[in-house]
Amino acid sequence: MDKTVKDKAPGWQAGIGHRLPWLGSEVAPVALNSPRWVGWSDALAKRLELTPDDTTLALLSGNGASLPWSPVAQVYSGHQFGGYTPRLGDGRGLHLGERHGLEVFLKGSGPTPYSRGGDGRAVLRSAIREFLASEALHHLGIATTRALAVIGSETPVWRETQETGAITVRVSPSHLRFGHFEYFLYTRQQDRLEALIEDTIDHHFPQVRGESEPRLAWLAQVVERTAETVADWQAFGFCHGVLNSDNMSILGETFDYGPFAFMNTFNPGYVCNHSDHEGRYAFHQQPGIGLWNLNRLAVPLTPWLDEAQLKSALAQYEPALIRRYLSRMGARLGLEAPEERDLTLIGDLLNLMAAAQVDYSNTLRHFAGLDPTSHDTPLHALLSGQEGFASWWQRYQARVGAPADLAQWQAQRAQANPALILRTHLAQQTIEAAEAGDNEPLARLHRALCRPYDPEPQYDDLRGDAPSWSQQLTLSCSS
Questions:
Q1: Looking at the domain assignment, is residue 89 inside a domain?
Q2: How many domains does the chain have?
């Protein structure tokens, strides 16, 4: 970028869409009518050095403010519910540019060449859900894209009924998806595919440049990051809902929130997306789907890597998944130096929880106040009626032993077991308030989600089991 452009846009860079201009199309955003701030992340704004003033609002809502370049909608393809769709792309969003090493993306900014007849808009409910979810996962310690803001408007948008248009301002070091690489392979643009791989390595995986096979080392890094994120989902009861290959980040970040949900009552076969009629993306299917999608990413590397090399990289998925899952669940249950044999102990507890139909997150939170030497604990109150619990407790006691400092042991469990998660009904309540013009419930829930392991007492009303009426809430891809 030359000095003139820097002077016009201090702190901004044009980003990958202008570095690799064939990666998509330059598109002007379609302005929202009467834009207004609905949600805002002070912490992320501080990192980006942005403030919620009128100039920032105009820039992020497409209302007259401009940078010295055009935003870019990127093209990609992907496997959706197992079948290949040859051309997708940013159908309702634009890459605005990079700021302080982070890409700023407007989701809901109007139609693009990849909208496939759609209006290119997001509605307020989906924008709020993505804002809350990405911030919630980040503060739980799970890799994810971030959300700077939600911008509401008076722009009418039709879904099942008339709603209002909104923009989620999404932030990530990279928005590259597995589907980007699939697109350039299957359209036989090998030169561009190679350039994309090299650019990805240079900007996001420079540490592999010293390896004898940088592309193989890059794939192995993506495999490990993906495995760790999926393991975190399983440990925290998070269901993504639409794990198509075009919704998989090359950074291993949780990406493209739609019909996601944290489980309430523990059910390994839980399907959060009512459009997923066959349960392809059920909770217990996510580890296998993660590997399936990585196999889709490996195919574009076949011009340069042989079958044995690709298999060696993909073979690292299961050990990385198990290692991360054991680390997370070991911390939650208090298992020192967890080993693979502990998977049986963990799995048996989950089977007891499923049989008892107890709340997943709140049940595990009880370990924060548990005395493993006792036979009268909150866990007993929940599970003692289940056949096999008494023997499980004996095995657990033998594995954990008596903590030398019980208070410290419990404090460590409290920092591994969140007291607060983003439940679907909590998000729904903030959506209904925001649709009525009240943004304070959203701001309050956001503040609470920023401290999930030690929320302040004034947020106790957000921490209980989900109410029975929440079972009626349904989620689809438009969510």
A1: yes
A2: 3
